[in-house]
Backbone:
């Protein structure tokens, strides 16, 4: 979609696989992306993953304890709000409506006191997901850069997409997730190939959440148009190219 993306996150603490686990399996050395190297990395990559413990050492010290607990902690709540890179738009997922309200208020306060003018979309899938849900309604709070908050609800149908059962989009192991991701980005497996209709549930799930990013970033104000932009990013090969560039650039730092 042409958007530079800096995702701030870590490894799984309450699930089988987090973004950090997936990228590590793809060959990314998470430790080389730090405060010193990131400015140069983002100059050469449209995608960058910021491993939270590398930027917030305190989080790294409690990582094993969080994993043992297996439940959301204050770090799950705090982490998404403290992206170390200046950003213009973001989507924050929460696991309860009450927390969604609090996140929106926090984002509004940050917008009022920060000159970065960040637009934030907070989402809560009513089935209990901290993403836009493939099934049923998702509540959202759109926080403008001036602190104004607009509340709304979306379903897959608002994206011109069908609903899918949660079991059909459930995360697997890092190895399984990496394989599926590459099949989608390479479009080399009929099961995960983007079609005019009846896509694999995981494909629709990715398209829907990517479309929301296009909307919050201001590329469009239409959910269905956002889906088409996401489709084009994948079928053109651009999404794969940006991921491979990030893998290659981080590998070059590992060799230094």
Residues:
């Amino acid at each position: 979609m042409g958007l530079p993306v800096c995702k701030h996150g870590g490894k799984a603490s309450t699930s089988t696989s987090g973004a950090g686990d997936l990228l590590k399996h793809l060959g990314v050395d998470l430790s080389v992306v730090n405060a010193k190297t990131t400015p140069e990395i983002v100059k050469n990559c449209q995608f960058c993953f910021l491993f939270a413990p590398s930027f917030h050492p305190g989080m790294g010290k409690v990582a094993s304890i969080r994993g043992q607990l297996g439940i959301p902690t204050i770090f799950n709540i705090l982490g998404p709000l403290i992206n170390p890179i200046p950003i213009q738009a973001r989507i924050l997922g929460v696991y309860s409506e009450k927390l969604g309200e609090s996140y929106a208020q926090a984002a509004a306060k940050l917008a009022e006191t920060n000159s970065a003018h960040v637009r934030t979309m907070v989402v809560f899938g009513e089935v209990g997901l901290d993403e836009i849900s493939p099934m049923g309604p998702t509540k959202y709070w759109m926080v403008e850069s001036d602190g104004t908050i607009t509340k709304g609800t979306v379903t897959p149908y608002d994206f011109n997409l069908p609903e899918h059962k949660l079991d059909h989009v459930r995360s697997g192991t890092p190895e399984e997730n990496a394989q599926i991701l590459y099949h989608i980005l390479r479009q080399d497996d009929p099961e995960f190939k983007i079609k005019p209709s009846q896509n694999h549930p995981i494909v629709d799930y990715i398209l829907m959440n990517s479309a929301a990013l296009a909307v919050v970033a201001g590329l469009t104000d239409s959910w269905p148009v956002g889906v088409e932009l996401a489709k084009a990013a994948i079928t053109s090969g651009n999404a794969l190219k940006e991921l491979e560039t990030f893998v290659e650039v981080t590998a070059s730092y590992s060799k230094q």
Notes: The two ends are 32 Å apart (CA to CA). Strands lie at 5-9, 47-51, 89-93, 119-125, 138-143, 149-154.
